[in-house]
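Researcher: Structure prediction, please.
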Amino acid sequence: MTEGARVDTAELMELLSVSLGVYYGEFTAAAASENLTASQGKALTVLRRGPAAMRALAETMTCDASNITGIIDRLEKRGLVRREAGTSDRRVKNVILTPEGERVADAIRARMRTTRAGLDSLDTEDRDRLRTLLERVFLTGPAV
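Model: Predicted structure follows.
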């Protein structure tokens, strides 16, 4: 591409698709190494940010609330999460990582060597720019 030429949206979408394919393939393999499905691994890594109500977790993971119940049931049986009643509404169930769940979530991320190596290769300026662009496109961009 010549300098100053505009990359078209279709090309950007294809690069994003390939990038996400690499990321999710690596994530799925890392979760499997901990005997988890990709959805179970995703729940753990989302919960690594902090406790979440079951409904909020389902929304974040873009899945039906009934599916999240099954995912959390299996994680709870393995001792990776626990449920607690909400403080303001006891009908609300918050999901919290156990120390073992934190360890497994961290292990999944640590096994994502290709993704980590790619991001680690960016200098500070490129990291800041990537963060800004990702936030603009996916978090604060125009509504679809």
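Model: The helical segments are 9-32, 38-47, 54-60, 65-77, 99-110, 113-120, 124-139.
Researcher: Thanks, that helps.
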